[in-house]
Amino acid sequence: MTISSAITPETVGSILARASRRSEIAPFIVMDVMERAARIEAEGGHVIHMEVGQPAAPAPQAAREAARRALDHGRIGYTTALGIPSLRARIARHYGETYNVDLDPARVVVTTGSSAGFLLAFLAMFEPGDRVAIANPGYPPYRHILTALGCEPVLIETDAASRWVITPEALAQAHAKAPLKGVLVASPANPTGTMMRPEALAELVRTAEGLGIRFISDEIYHGLDYAFPATTAAAISPNATIIHSFSKYFCMTGWRVGWMVMPATLVRAVERLQQNLMISVPTLSQIAAEAAFDGAAEMEAVKHGYEENRLILTQGLPKVGLPEFLPVDGAFYLYADVSRFTDDSAGFARRLLDEAHVAATPGVDFDPHRGHHYLRLSYAGAASEMREAVTRIGDFLRRG
Ligand SMILES: Cc1ncc(COP(=O)(O)O)c(C=O)c1O
Question: Which atom of ligand 1 is the closest one to the Cα of 246?
Fold first, then answer.
């Protein structure tokens, strides 16, 4: 049978080749930096990697041993959609131990990294067209995931006056312009490395909820707080959604496992979504994650390494000509103002890599408006590399 078509083969070809409009989201420029760094290394150059936001240390030994035992045991099957019950209970216990919050394990949902947590949370809470506030600068996938789901990310500008966080006033103003359905904050944040003071977080949660705006708190960098202890939004309101991960403090980026603390009324919606979208989170990773809680000594040692790196940079960079950066409170990022040197942070990062072999991420990745004046330096590497980086950056700035 021949099926004829009224449209030409060329038109058919162009229809089939076209990606959806919702997939038209910006790439991550840091990937270009990584590729360029790899080329320099292939030619024998020694690059100091300050572009990537991940720990150099492996998962805690207890986690790796638990995974090894589980592999030897034989069968790695599906788990229930919300996660292995003992892991959910262990995560709930973590809230009691760390924040003195009595958390019902029934509100804990295990996810495939916090990235899948955003997807599940946004799907469970928002309709296409809903407006969701996020801080600018901020972690790019927030706006890209929202855009891909047909929601509208609303960038709220932050600055030194607000200590680089969304204020209740700024939230209320954005809501008055056109109603918001959600607000998402991170503390410590990426790329800024700044944190919200406990009172600031509490006030923002209360303001959001008073206006009927759902509150989402990305707490992936909890545990990596140096300036003052991070507060969980779970201690402030049972209606806040917490997104967390084993990627950063627990040093388990590639295991792809995280968790959410959901308002009780939304757990069933997330369960249905996870059943259909993912079935369950990788079992081996869940087993390893539960054991990771026994690796506190190792993780604290890694954290002390970051604290040392933080001092090397905050004390060293001003001496070599880079004195302006945002409050370096937590995570492992320093967000430097390079406006006295350039209006083109992407070009500046490229030259820093080519000439000084220091890989850094241009601010344009995180801030479409002012990012051309900023550079993000990750200090998750070794202390010796951080010292060398300060020297190289100093030489680079002197050469001009
Ligand atoms: C602020 C922030 N949230 C979420 C993520 C996603 O992490 P994962 O999916 O590995 O949990 C990252 C990764 O860098 C991040 O910086």
Answer: 11
Q: Is the CB of 218 under 6 A from ligand 1?
A: yes
| Pocket flag, ligand 1, residue 306 (CB < 6 Å) | no
- Report the b/e string of 333-365 with b at 16+ CB within 10 A: bbbbbbeebbeebbebbbebbeebbbbbbbbbb
Separation of CA 219 and ligand 1 centre (Å): 9
The structure's pTM equals: 0.94
Query: How many CA within 13 A on the CB side of residue 95?
Result: 23
What pLDDT is recorded for position 31?
79
| Cα-to-centroid distance, 254 and ligand 1 (Å) | 11
Pinpoint the alpha helices (H) of the chain: 9-17, 29-42, 61-73, 85-99, 113-125, 140-148, 168-177, 198-210, 267-277, 283-292, 296-319, 345-356, 383-399
Q: Is 191 in the pocket of ligand 1 (CB under 6 A)?
A: no
* The residue count for the chain: 400
Q: What is the pLDDT of residue 315?
A: 97
- For the segment 11-39, what is each residue's pLDDT rounded down to a tens digit? 888 888 888 888 888 777 787 888 999 99
Distance CA 141, CA 168 (A): 23
Closest to 133 measured CA to CA, from 151, 156, 114: 156
Residue 75 in this model has a pLDDT that exceeds 70: yes
Q: Separation of 220 CA from ligand 1 center, angstroms? A: 6
Task: From the CA of 139, give the closest atom in ligand 1.
Answer: 1
Distance CA 212, CA 183 (A): 11
> What SS3 class is residue 261?
strand
